[in-house]
Amino acid sequence: MQFITKLKQFYKANERILIPTMLIFGVIVDFVTFRTIKISSAFIVLAIYWLIAGATIIFIHRSNGSEQTHQNIVSKYYSIIAPLVIQFTFGATLSASFIFYWFSGSFSVSWPFMFLIAILMIANEAFRKYYMRPMIQVSVYYFITLSLITLMLPYLFNSISAWIFALGGILSLMIGYLYLEMLASYAHRLQFIKKRLQVIALIIFGLMNLLYFTNLIPPIPLSLTEAGVYHHIERSNGGYILEAESQNLLEKMIPGEVIHVSEGEPVYVYSAIFAPFDLNTQIIHEWQHFDNDTKRWVTKDELGFTIYGGRDEGYRGFSQKSSLSEGFWRVNVQTSRGQTIGVVRFKIRFVDDEIKTEEVAR
What gap in Å lies between CA 276 and CA 84, rounded to an integer? Predict the structure, then answer.
């Protein structure tokens, strides 16, 4: 008993250090995990985090609703570290969603959703006392549940169809309902707020669907591994030969690529997209030119090709367009639903002289 008392005192004295440390540790574990093990194994780890988080929430509120003298020694120890476990598992699962969505979509398009996840991660530390409240814990737990299910199902079914996301939402509501029933059965005092928790879950469900069907959620599990603009591209021995404009070190460091062409010369845009094995889907290159008069991006062409998953470096494809105007251009790499995987930006400048180029093999 004396050791438990000392442990409680140590936790109280170092809470401000321990809580953010566990959050950072969870992010580091995610970063290392997703670079050293297979995606399927990473999902197993995330599922374990999710189960631990759910069980810990039940434990905390069951424990708070019962007499401390009735707890066994293991429960007394776990009641001390339970807040740290919540911080770690919430931090790990939220950062996992952030990592997946960061690498799968264009930040310029999907930033509202990624910003929401980042805010939840920051709030996980900044408002740690509020995280001990059941309303906050269960709300975040449902958001994590919905996020993880909609991350996993595309890998399971090898599809990014809208019905996959819809199925994930329905499954999350079913799981959320069963979890609330279980939580309320262990912590009877939560019966009074169960209806409010159900309403919050429905609001989160609605918001996620709004983000998805307005294409603000990236198309998991597709991710753009490489993209660029070139003078010429041709297939060669199962690969591609890219003719790139020669650049010095300073030009490579300055953002915003300038490609020099003669008037009427075609321009090529190359993209390599990672997709899991057996996933076949249509990719669209949407060519847009910035109109200086209207100050808007104007779509000039939409060129598509099919990708086949399974290649670690990504499935390669390209599109070309001739008779381009001078000025700023961008090519949005999209799914057939209009979800943006990435954006290739460049500026076209007409020249009369021959441009020095170099060949790059892919």
Answer: 35
| Cβ atoms of 190 and 184 closer than 8 Å | yes
- Sorted by where each begins, the domain ranges of the chain are 2-213, 223-361
Sheet holding 267-274, edge to edge: 223-230, 267-274, 315-321
215 contacts 338 by C-beta, under 8 angstroms? yes
CA dist 169 and 143 (Å) reads: 11
Residues 6+ apart with CB under 8 A from 341: 104, 105, 106, 218, 219, 222, 223, 224, 273, 283, 333, 334, 335
Q: Per-10-residue mean pLDDT for the chain, 362 residues long?
A: 53 54 60 60 84 88 56 62 76 70 54 58 55 78 90 81 89 93 82 85 90 77 79 83 75 67 87 73 89 89 77 74 88 85 87 80 80
Strands 257-261 and 340-350, by their bridges, are: parallel
Contact present, 56 and 22 (Cβ < 8 Å)? no
Question: Per CATH, which fold does 223-361 belong to?
Answer: Immunoglobulin-like (2.60.40)
Instruction: Give dist(CA 145, CA 129) in Å, integer.
Output: 22
Token reading at 5: 């008392």
